[in-house]
Amino acid sequence: MREFIQLAFSQIGRTIEWRGEGIEETGVDSRTGDVLVRVDPRYFRPTEVDLLLGDPSKARRVLGWQHKVTFPELVAEMVSSDLDVVAKEIHTNERCYETL
User: Fold this and answer.
1) I need a surface site. Which of 62, 88, 95, 100 has the fewest CB within 10 A?
2) Mean of pLDDT values over 15-40
């Protein structure tokens, strides 16, 4: 998650510094000192695991699948899409999606 968060914020020109540990860890804007990321226990998995790794080798072997987008490119695409949604909300003064 840290890498994803750092890449996402870098798309809008912000650098995240991590402070604290465990549930008290926060992501802080290195320029302003504003806390931008906090741990929220509501989103923990019921049986949290320490490490999750995906392995695309079977998809490559069985389906001939090969990724075409790098992780940083995927994050940039996701952030760009969210920024488009926000721009439309501002322009139309309507929410384009429900918040959690």
Assistant:
1) 100
2) 96
